[in-house]
Amino acid sequence: MGSLQLLPPSASAHAADMDWLFAALLGVSAFILLLVFGLMILFCIRYRKGSKVERGNRLGRTWRVEVAWTGLTFAAFLVLYFWGANLYVRIHSPPGDATDIYVVGKQWMWKIEHPGGQREIDTLHVPVGRPVRLVLTSQDVIHDFAIPAFRIRQDAVPGRYETLWFTPTEVGEYRLFCAEFCGTWHARMGGTVVVMEPSDFQRWLDSQDPGPSLAQEGEALFRSYGCSGCHGGSSTVHAPRLEGLFGRPVPLEGGRTVIADDRYIRDSILMPKAEIAAGYPPVMPSFAGQIGEDDLLKLVAYIKSLADKTADSVERPAP
Amino acid sequence: MTTATVTGKPEEPVVATKNYLTEGGVTLRSWLLTRDHKRIAILYTLSITLFFFVGGAAATLIRLNLVTPSGIFTPDIYNRLFTLHGVIMVWFFLIPSIPNTMGNFLIPLMIGAKDLAFPRLNLLSWYLYVGAGFLALFAIVIGGVDTGWTFYTPFSSLYSNGYVVLALAAVLAVGFSSILTGLNFIVTTHRMRAPGMTWYRLPVFVWSNYATSVIMVLATPVLAITLILVAAERLLKVGIFDPALGGDPLLFQHLFWFYSHPAVYIMILPGFGVISEIVPCFARKPLFGYKFVVWSSIAISVIGFFVWAHHMFVAGISLYAGLVFSLLSYVIAVPSAIKVFNWTATLHKGWISFDAPMLYALGFIGLFTIGGLTGLFVANLAFDVHVTDTYFVVAHFHYIMVGGMVSAYFGGLHYWWPKVTGRLYPEWWARIAALLIFFGFNLTFFPQFILGYLGMERRYYSYPPEFQAWNILSSAGASVLAVGYALPFFYLGWSLFRGKRAGANPWAATGLEWQTPSPPPTHNFDRTPTVSRPPYQYRPEPEPQDV
Predict the structure, then answer these.
(1) Reported pTM
(2) Which residues in chain A have their CB less than 8 angstroms from residue B246's CB?
(3) ipTM score of the complex?
């Protein structure tokens, strides 16, 4: 039946920060609670009906008191707000050297793909002490990837990429849950996060069926979906080249500029008319409904792998 | 301590020979076609009680299921149970609870009017409510709706297999019932106050229901739009929320919470009103900081429209949106805190007695304070990333909705019971029920805060075994709570026939509703009253009050 546990295991760099924030919230709450309960109990005993204490000289003009407690309360609230906001920003700012792992939720499992092409379902292996960035999406309804031991969670929303990052600090196995109601087996859509020593993790990666990497599979898809016909080097169509694109600013028609991130690549495949690169005719057809989430992730991984290349260094695939 | 010693005056067993219960006939037809706000309030009370027990039965089964980690019911049954519990409790108990029962009965009495401004709309609102209620029960129980009360897309619009559209139609209909009630209250408060009843002489109960009505009228149409869009996507495959059809699932959440967060204030503001009536009466003191209490209600109803996205901190909104919505959520906590401080200060140098309504009111202040403070936890951006969608959130809003609102409902029910029925309820039984509810409630929901921090997710029919001990405690508390809620059903029922006659003003309370006989005559007042003083002119020594 288990004992009356009070805190979940703590296994990420955020976890200790979160527990301190919890302590601060508890401290402020305990102070206000003791004040209100203490005064209520004191007044209820001292001024109960029939007690003979002095009741004259009541507080007449109340606004000074009102302004005082309103101001003090708000000041205390603001401190808590900034504390939480600061941590929230950090939780959402992954370091540049984080390893990307792709996660697709579907009723009712988590499909996970490592950059080397290793796949797992409902289990996530990660090395201790190294930052990991998860790129989350969903194939059907909204799910939520929650790891209480890391004190983080993020919805996996169909049609969007959401990210979540953490640095595991303790080797061990931790629970993984789906936290957004997603249908019949919602409660069973979970698994385990396995945090390993880096050397063990490398052994684990090697022991998996290596297969082609995500980017290699993406490259094959890039040809089979016909993308290379226009975006490839030998193409006669005037389409933007994708080498050296990822992570850099792209000027758009209309003057805006966006960073070419996972979302931009994905949206450009599915909704090519939404954000048109400046100077290119809007001729690309939409691939919405034709490419599944798994394949989209591979295409994005391929285009990401071209980030460090220049147009000339890449061997042109035949159209 | 009997009630007679509270009032300090001899019982006047004077029953108005003609009152709203007897005038106009006692036939079923005379009740079902009545336009008297008091009779409609009784109709509402009966139907709301029915739905409260239906929603409570679902809650009982939920807690029963969670006694073991593997669950007792199948997941589909469990998912329907929490949908039933949520939909019924939110739309068919909490939202109409105080406004449509006590508000309906008391607002005309408190402002010295003969009825609400639109008696026929009032009756129509009840028929919409009852029709919608049975439609919702049918859709969920027979049609197996399993979306939860939040109807998140694209699950609700394309994946769920139940009679979702029928459930949406039921909620749409009950929304119109809400709008009609809100409209009626607003017009009544503006147009039908007795001579001398200026805005700052209105009881806080009227102010609170006024603020509630403004939200009902402004927010509910957005719910209606949202529900119709979900139905359109489900029936006609119009792509609005599902990305596979070119829609955006977050759009649904923005629209839904634009209604549903203000709806939280629809549920709690009338409770503030009840507490603001009870505390001065049993402390024999004017309400401390009347204007601050009044304007904090108005502030809540306005700011309440600008905090909705705090339900979406991990849903994929931008960082900046998160920063703004969290700050506004901290801002709205201030007016709630002002109320708690003012009620507490009202006790200072009072002449306090502890009849059942006061026990409920004190319980309300305590539980609402815990609920409000844990609101600061979930409004905190980073903290919410860990606890959203867990039992921490479940515990937080039950402290507000059940610990707060239901306590206020029971407090008000006992406080005005003599006025409504002309009979006194048995005081000791009522105190026992109040204490059972307080302790049962805490035992049920406090463990859920800890479960949430440990990572127990919402809407799970089964859970990891390490969470079982806290779940057993919570279910044990729920059984105490069930006894506490069932007790009033029996002793209040008994008092209808055997309770002592109440007299016009058993609590020696101020307020116009106490100046007319109990039960009141159909037209409320024989002569239109004139008001010359602010409310809550209580003096320390109990003595008969007159306005």
Answers:
(1) 0.89
(2) 288
(3) 0.89
